[in-house]
User: What shape does this take?
Amino acid sequence: MVATAGKTSWDEEGRLLGSRSIPLSPLGRAQVERVASQLEQFPFRVIYTGHSRHCLESARILAQACGASVRCLRELCEVNQGLWEGLLIREVERTYPRSYRAWLREPCSVRPPAGESIVQAYERARAVLATLSRRHRGQVVAIVAPKLLRALIRCCLRGLGPEAVWDLYDEEADWEVIQMPGREIGKA
Assistant: This one.
């Protein structure tokens, strides 16, 4: 199962969160509590997440509902957006117009200044999924991930490359059960 961490105040303001550690907003907490009520019957033993506050808070709410433990992995942190982090999207569009437009059109072609590329984050996601797949063969586990990383995880699990990230990116905290593929993760 892959769930998106709940919203933060920065999400609501239209800021790029990146690797910053911001707590859940009241709306984000309500989103995660709604998801938790839907997942109470799932037999999760463990929920994996990154170290940011909104991810940890989201995972803990879900774990309490499902009776699972929470484990943090640095590989599940959001894509580091470097100098773009904390900026309003309109500020990024104004300050870095060509780079930002290219990032949306061809996400693999741009790396935010002092940040991480989509390809680097995709490889990080692919590697952690392969590890979790081996470690928990035949078990149900959950991953709570920030929005952009969740889209990359979804790409990996569906055999898509990182260029499909915007096709699988969505704004709302939500969840889905995804069967681990029988082939190497991230390979079509």
